[in-house]
Design a protein that fits this description.
alpha+beta; Rossmann fold; Hnrnp arginine n-methyltransferase1; 3 domains; six-stranded antiparallel beta sheet; five-stranded parallel beta sheet; 10 helices; 18 strands; binds S-adenosylmethionine
């Protein structure tokens, strides 16, 4: 530890730091495993300052200035009710005793958009596979939790499969129509809710308690990066509080990866230009260049000012628009029933991967035949025994709602040299980290 008063240290905030307000205290949690401690408002402001200026010089003066400014912003008696209402509409405050109406005014209520819910409903493979898994599990359970219920499709399937009780939790505005839709769909199927119970909680699952607890949790919280919608944290919390030892659909998720040759014209052109702009000898000088040359020079200049060594993005590919080359490997597996503690998901043992054997390279990701090679990542989730869904186009159980992740190559593998792929979740457990290396040389990463 450095001595207080010695030269000012460069400080930064831990990325795993989280705050919570519990029993009226502000609690700081440096990580899920390190415990928590009470902090005052001045400490929160101090940490905010360290985060924004990255050092400790002049902190005292800034802190005093900001807290004095904050004092002058304290709302008046007349303003306070409006402020509290705004915070309620943003989903920060909830009205006690109400099951919640969802964050009415939140600008990012993405899942309230009916077209987003429709895109999920219209993915036949996705809903048919969930129906299959639910039908297999339903007879053994009495109370199901539909976690992140959206349109209510999974609640409908659970009630149709005979579950006596379903608790649907949905935080977005989609919750408002859920009960009506499920009831209507059940009626159309000649079923009513006389002997079954559907309870809707229009709230984030962290704010809900259930009595009795659920003995089955059904959830679809997958993103293109399967973890990006916060599935791990939500399921872990639900398994702890809302359905201890409950069975879970899905059961596990596995991330796979392989080198792939891209045939989709848009993606191929986009990657080719990216690779060309990154080549060191690509930087030309031209006086009075043509429009095409000027644009190409602009792309190079733009690329140089970006940190693109860890580039990755989802892309909607169809079967036939790419071919896997070399081996495909399972890189990372997360059990979901139950979800393991955070440290077990940070990283999995490195996977050994053979590079494509017959490939020559003119530059990273480019071959003499004009092919563009990238690293493709997709997921497969096991919903129940023998029932899976996949984000890889061409798989028998591919769901078109999800897109595989594209990782452009920043350097090319050498023939015959074995590669090592490291993968795991970051501190937020919402981002899948992947690094493909040949020795210390990184080929692609996200
Ligand atoms: C991918 S959609 C799935 C919707 C529906 N279950 C289906 O299969 O069509 C996920 C839904 O979960 C909701 N959601 C995500 N996390 C949640 C949480 N912790 N509590 C409540 N709702 C949540 C989102 O608002 C979204 O509507």
């Amino acid at each position: 530890m450095s001595k207080p008063g010695s030269s000012p240290a460069k400080l930064r905030l831990s990325q795993s730091l989280r705050f919570a307000i519990e029993a009226g205290n502000i609690l700081a949690r440096p990580s899920q495993n390190l415990g928590e401690f009470v902090v005052g408002a001045e400490i929160v402001e101090l940490l905010r300052l360290v985060d924004s200026q990255g050092g400790s010089q002049g902190l005292c003066r800034e802190l005093r200035k900001n807290l004095e400014a904050a004092l002058s912003h304290i709302p008046s008696e007349q303003e306070l009710p409006h402020l509290l209402k705004d915070l309620e509409e943003a989903g920060v405050l909830l009205t006690a005793g109400r099951r919640g109406s969802g964050p009415v005014g939140a600008g990012t209520d993405r899942f309230a958009d009916s077209w987003i819910q429709w895109a999920m409903l219209a993915d036949s493979c996705r809903v048919e596979r969930y129906a299959e898994a639910i039908r297999a599990k339903a007879p053994h359970h009495k109370h199901a939790l539909d976690l992140g219920a959206g349109s209510g499709i999974l609640s409908f399937l659970l009630l149709q499969a005979g579950l006596p009780r379903v608790s649907a939790i949905e935080e977005s505005g989609a919750a408002a129509q859920l009960k009506k839709t499920v009831r209507r769909a059940l009626n159309s199927c000649g079923q009513d809710l006389l002997t079954q119970k559907l309870e809707v909680h229009a709230s984030n699952s962290a704010n809900v308690s259930l009595s009795p607890k659920a003995d089955l949790i059904v959830s679809e919280l997958f993103g293109h990066d399967p973890f990006s919608e916060g599935m791990i944290g939500c399921l872990r919390d639900a398994q702890k509080r809302l359905g201890k030892e409950a069975a879970c659909i899905p059961h596990s998720v596995t991330v796979h990866g392989s080198f792939a040759k891209i045939a989709n014209p848009q993606l191929k052109s986009r990657l080719k230009q990216w690779h060309e702009a990154r080549q060191p000898h690509g930087q030309k000088k031209a006086s009075s260049p043509s429009v095409a040359t000027a644009l190409s020079l602009f792309r190079q200049a733009y690329g140089k000012s970006q940190d693109w060594d860890t580039l990755s993005f989802p892309f909607s590919l169809r079967a036939g628009e790419f071919s896997l080359v070399g081996e495909s490997k399972a890189l990372f597996r997360a059990a979901l029933s139950p979800v393991p503690p955070p440290r077990k998901l940070r990283s999995s043992p490195p996977t050994r991967l053979k590079p494509p054997s017959d490939m020559d390279w003119t530059a990273a990701g480019l071959t003499p035949a004009g092919d563009v090679i990238c690293f493709l990542v997709w997921f497969e989730a096991e919903l129940s025994e023998g029932v899976s869904i996949s984000s890889l186009p061409g798989h028998a159980h591919h769901c078109h709602h999800w897109e595989p992740l594209v990782l452009p190559l920043v350097s090319s593998p050498e023939k015959g040299k074995l590669l090592s792929v490291e993968s795991g979740l970051d501190d937020t457990e919402c981002h899948l980290h992947i690094e493909i290396r040949e020795g210390s040389r990184v080929l692609a990463a996200r």
